[in-house]
Specification:
binds manganese (II) ion; Isopropylmalate Dehydrogenase; 12 helices; ICDH/IPMDH; 20% strand; oxidoreductase; alpha/beta; binds potassium ion; binds nicotinamide-adenine-dinucleotide; two-stranded antiparallel ribbon; ten-stranded mixed β-sheet; 2 domains; NAD; magnesium ion binding; 362 residues
């Protein structure tokens, strides 16, 4: 029987609640499958580790992860530590260290979810946003001079490389091609950002020639927010820069009902390194430690993790169980207007998955 080595990194805040819930659900899906098992290793990196050691993860942290089959991540962000330290010291270190350049963010309105757009039917909103995840506005290039003085200046340079844009564009076209509608919208801002974004547009046109069966268009990022609200059914696959997609995907999650539901995969498409799966939300300081976090975003991320491992049957069964649970309002957490706890939602998903024996007997 196959055993997949999975690293879990809960991180901070509600990450410490939803990642153990995700592990429980992954154990249940393995128990109910006959073909594979998981070997988990947990890493307690994050804000608490920082308070003890002065860093978010050890210097050789990437080496502990390098040979895993996948990583399940929670959130980096601690109320007492500046956000740029927690983000750059943990999540970005892993994303950049393992060159996880494609960040994939599916959005759908799941059964039973009361999404805010009253004119939008569930079938009108079925998107995947591809976020460039290695450079762009979050390249880390920049600096501050004359700190605290009246002449102080600071820059964060948007750095795009031809190789970096070509690979994420090709990934997005390929993903669009694999979906039924074969439709890609390239998000841009080349009207205002006349260097990097103009190159981005040129590369989109160039790569599109490799995919003659994909229909594609361009949309300026600000107009794209309005289109997501007003004409959601005209979108399918989207590709955007690191910053633009960061913002658009939180909007997408909210349009689909809640930030607590949305999943993501930080993917190394070449599979040189492990890919990392996580809910898109952060540490949620307002509800952390109370057992109230919605674990669905993490469970859906586990579906993506299973697909990445090639366990498509298990992925489909887990997604089915998640949808059965969202369809039941008594199993909605507070972000969806319900009263259910993280533990109740987790138990309900595990119960639906059953065991291999139960499945054989049924
Ligand atoms: P957040 O996602 O933590 O929370 C935004 C709002 O959504 C809060 O009201 C929160 O309660 C709610 N929410 C989020 N996830 C939920 C869930 N699963 N169930 C129920 N409600 C949920 O965003 P924020 O408040 O901007 O950030 C808090 C911290 O998290 C910051 O330190 C930030 O840097 C960090 N962060 C980390 C990541 C990451 O690690 N990938 C992503 C976003 C934010
Ligand atoms: K996260
Ligand atoms: Mn974000």
């Amino acid at each position: 029987m196959k055993t997949y080595a999975i690293a879990t990194i809960p991180g901070d805040g509600i990450g410490k609640e939803v990642v153990p819930a995700g592990r429980q659900v992954l154990e249940a899906i393995a128990d109910s499958s006959s073909g594979f098992r998981f070997a988990f290793e947990n890493f307690d990196w994050g804000g608490d580790y920082y308070r003890q050691h002065g860093v978010m993860m050890p210097a050789d942290g990437l080496d502990s992860l390098r040979h895993k089959d996948a990583i399940l991540f929670g959130s980096a962000g601690d109320p007492d530590i500046p956000d740029h330290i927690t983000l750059w010291g943990l999540r970005l270190k892993i994303c950049q260290g393992f060159d996880q350049y494609a960040n994939v963010r599916p959005t759908r309105i799941l059964p039973g979810i009361d999404a805010p757009l009253k004119r939008c039917k569930p079938e009108d909103l079925n998107w995947v946003i591809v976020r460039e995840n290695s450079e762009g506005e979050y390249s880390g290039v920049g600096g501050r001079v004359h700190q605290g003085h009246p002449i102080e200046a600071a820059t964060d340079v948007t750095m795009m490389t031809r190789a970096g844009v070509e690979r994420v564009m090709r990934f997005a076209f390929k993903l669009a091609q694999s979906r039924p509608r074969k439709l890609l919208t390239v998000i841009t801002k080349s009207n205002a950002q006349r260097h990097a974004m103009v190159m981005w547009d040129e590369i989109a046109l160039q790569i599109s020639k490799e995919f003659p069966d994909v229909t594609w268009d361009k949309e300026i990022v600000d107009a794209a927010t309005a289109r997501m609200v007003n004409r959601p059914a005209t979108l399918d696959t989207l590709v955007a820069t690191n910053l633009h997609a960061d913002i658009l995907s939180d909007l997408a999650a909210a349009l689909a009902g809640s930030l607590g539901i949305a999943p993501t995969g930080n993917i190394d498409p070449e599979r040189r390194y492990p890919s990392m799966f996580e809910p898109i939300h952060g540490s949620a300081f307002d509800i952390m430690g109370k057992g109230l976090a919605n674990p669905v975003g993490t469970f859906w991320s586990c579906v993506m993790l299973l697909e990445h491992l090639g366990e498509f049957d298990a992925a489909q069964r887990l997604m089915g169980a998640i949808e059965q649970v969202t369809a039941n309002p008594t199993l909605h957490t507070g972000d969806l207007g319900g009263k259910a706890t993280t533990a109740q939602v987790t138990q309900a998903v595990c119960n639906l998955l059953g065991t291999a024996e139960q499945r054989l007997a049924a």
